[in-house]
Amino acid sequence: MSNGAKFPKTGRSWADIEGDLDRLVSNESFWRPENRLMTGIHKGSPETFEIIEKAYMKLFHYNGLLADMEHGGVGRMQDELLGWTADLLNGGKDARASMMTGGTEAIFCGLHAAREWAKETRPDIKGPYQVVAPWSIHATFSKGAHYLGLEVIRVPLGDDLRGDVAAMEKAITPNTIMLAGSAPSWGIGRVDPIEQIAKLAKDRGLWMHVDACVGGFLLPFMERCGEDIPLWDFRVPGVCTISADLHKHGYAAKPASTLSFRNEELQNYSFAGAVVSDWQSGAYKSHGFVGSRPGGAISAAWAVMSYLGEEGYTKLTRKLIDTRNWMIEEIESIEDYKVLRNHCLMMPFRSETLDMLRVLGGLVERGYFPWGTMEPLMVHPSAELVDESVNRKFIADLKEVTSGVKSGEITAEALATYI
Ligand SMILES: Cc1ncc(COP(=O)(O)O)c(C=O)c1O
Question: Does the global pTM surpass 0.90?
Answer without folding.
Answer: yes
